[in-house]
Design a protein that fits this description.
With 257 residues, the chain is of the alpha+beta class. It is built from 8 helices and 7 strands, in the order αβββββββααααααα. It starts with a helix and ends with a helix.
Length: 257
């Protein structure tokens, strides 16, 4: 297996995304990975799923999980689409939240450490982040919760300790399913890799549920309802029903503030 195939596997990439180049910079202690997307094809608008041509590209760089002792950076020219209905919209990437300079896996690692460390500065030091970068990761997690609270006046679970892990896994699965659904029409071959990632995230949330109930962060009744959404989503994890899976996971994600 060559370096491009290896990093493609490590990043969980599938068609149409592919690793184009891997560069080891020994003096800087860094690995740089370039991911590409074919520019000749039509994609779908993230808002309405209408087919749309590429308008232009924006160069983006994300911090990813380290490769052994080497800081790893992910590069991509992210297309912006010219949707007839919504205008110019950036194509979502499967590895990061819009507006973040860190991959979702890196942010999940940071959030995990924030749960273990009381001081944000200690987390920043351990992960070699600036204080502002660590605070930004924390603020994005808070904004996600606030946005859901404003959009839907439904009953929410409290978030603390283990339930935060469950929420992050569920919401990451929701985002992944929405992205897979957006790509399904143009690139059906990419659905299987996305489905595997979603199953892993659902399993992660279920592994944490027992501790959350034992700690009183979730009531058994609340978890039964939440697990019902996860079961419905898992049963819908097929290329032809990713839209239903995304909807069930969105309901599960909205359970949290």
């Amino acid at each position: 297996m060559d370096d491009k195939s290896l990093y493609g596997r490590l990043l969980g990439l599938s068609s149409p995304w592919a690793v184009d180049k891997v560069e080891l910079r020994l003096e800087q202690g860094e690995v740089h990975v370039w991911v590409v997307l074919p520019s000749k094809e039509l994609w779908v608008c993230p808002d309405c799923q209408a087919r749309a041509p590429i308008h232009d590209h924006r160069e983006r760089v994300w911090r990813h999980l380290d490769t052994f002792q080497y800081r790893t950076m992910l590069h991509a020219r992210v297309p912006r689409l010219n949707c007839p209905r919504h205008g110019v919209r950036q194509l979502p990437v499967p590895w990061a939240e819009e507006g973040s300079r860190f991959t979702a896996l890196y942010e999940a690692l940071a959030i995990d450490w924030m749960m273990k460390q009381a001081a944000l500065a200690a987390v920043a030091q351990r992960l070699h982040l600036t204080w502002d970068e660590a605070a930004g990761i924390q603020e994005r997690a808070v904004r996600r919760g606030l946005a859901r609270r404003q959009l839907e006046p439904a009953r929410h679970l409290g978030v603390d300790e283990t339930s935060l892990l469950i929420r992050d896994a569920v919401c990451a699965a929701s985002a992944r399913a929405a992205n897979a659904f957006a790509f399904a029409g143009a690139c059906p071959d990419s659905a299987e890799a996305d489905i595997r990632q979603i199953r892993t995230l659902i399993d992660q949330s279920r592994r944490s549920s027992g501790q959350a109930v034992a700690d009183g962060e979730l009531t058994p009744a609340d978890w039964e309802t939440l697990d019902g959404y996860l079961s419905l989503a898992q049963a819908s994890l097929a290329p032809g029903t990713l839209g239903e899976a995304a909807g069930f996971l969105e309901h599960a994600c909205d359970f949290f503030p």
